[in-house]
Specification:
The protein is an alpha/beta fold and 288 residues long. Helices cover 26% and strands 24% of the residues. It contains 8 helices and 15 strands. Strands 1-2-3-6-8-9 form a 6-stranded mixed sheet, covered by helices on one side. Helix 4 packs across helix 7. The protein is globular and about 55 Å long.
Length: 288
């Protein structure tokens, strides 16, 4: 009998997935990659999607132990800060978030009040670190490439890979983040594929899904090895780079990157309010 319960929540606007992973013995939960609703046209932040996750926690009698980010996302605003304020839990991300913070502090011309040391998060994880979820271990795997700071979370027989891998049909997501690397991504994927074949792989992004569909969001190491359209079939590094570039040749920079990264490098917190009491986002011109 499985020791964990995994509940996926699909966010249609961003095509991303939030996972609630629960240790059934203790009812302690980890929320992986939570999302706030963001309408860029009106500059409106709302909490409907995050509230549905909180309702799930409450209705099942769970308690939030962790709110985990696989990376600083460029396609949605993190709900980590909001959920922590509502129900508690410790926020965590890979230690290399500091590199992302340095990059965007420079691009956004942030003042010295913004610290590039990851202090905005409760805990920064190192590669191979073990943390606890109830009675269970969460194994931290440093899997950069999509961004320089990506991590994956291995819990029992399930690994949550964020955007390091996609479904076998899609292969991988674009490498359009500053300092991202297709070569580094290949080596990170090989690390995931070195896990036991039966390991379940939960992807963080699926632009083809139109509704929550567990079978679309869950794959496996053996399925990735056999059927992944970019890295499957024991593709070499050269083959992977070629296929990945062909797949994403017309891809543009993620349109929400510059606005949402200003939240996500702050663990989902808004930038500091200005003298009017209002909050503002900055868009650097001709910088990317």
């Amino acid at each position: 009998m499985s020791k964990i319960r995994i509940d996926p929540f699909y966010h249609p606007a961003s095509h991303t997935v939030t996972y609630v992973v629960t240790d059934l013995a203790t009812c302690q939960s980890a929320i992986i990659d939570p999302v706030l609703d963001f309408d860029i046209a009106s500059g409106t932040i709302s909490t409907g999607f995050a509230d549905s996750i909180i309702d799930h926690i409450d209705n099942n009698g769970f308690e939030i132990e962790w709110i985990l980010e696989t990376h600083a996302h460029c396609d949605h605003v993190s709900a980590a800060c909001y959920i922590k304020k509502q129900r508690g839990g410790m926020t965590g991300i890979g230690e290399h978030i500091s590199q992302i913070q340095h990059t965007f502090k420079r691009l956004l011309n942030l003042d010295d009040s913004f610290k590039c040391n990851g202090e905005q998060f409760d805990q920064l994880f190192t590669d191979e670190e073990l943390i606890k979820l109830g009675h269970l271990d969460i194994h931290i795997m440093y899997t950069p490439g999509h961004t320089p700071a990506c991590v994956s979370y291995l819990i029992e027989d399930a690994v949550f890979v964020g955007d390091t891998l996609s479904t076998p049909e899609l292969g991988t997501v674009n490498v359009d983040f500053p300092d991202s690397s297709t070569t580094t991504l290949y080596h990170s994927i090989q690390r995931i594929l070195a896990l036991p074949n039966c390991t379940r792989v939960f992807v963080g992004h699926n632009k083809l899904a139109e509704k929550r569909a567990d079978e679309v969001l869950e794959t496996s190491v053996i399925a990735q090895k056999r059927y992944n359209s970019v890295v499957g079939g024991k593709a070499t590094l050269a083959e992977f780079v070629k296929l990945h570039q062909q797949r994403h040749v017309d891809s543009d920079i993620q349109p929400l990157l510059l606005p949402v990264i200003q939240f996500n490098i702050r663990a989902g917190n808004m930038p500091p309010a200005e003298a009017t009491g209002n909050y503002y986002l900055k868009i650097p011109l001709n910088q990317l």
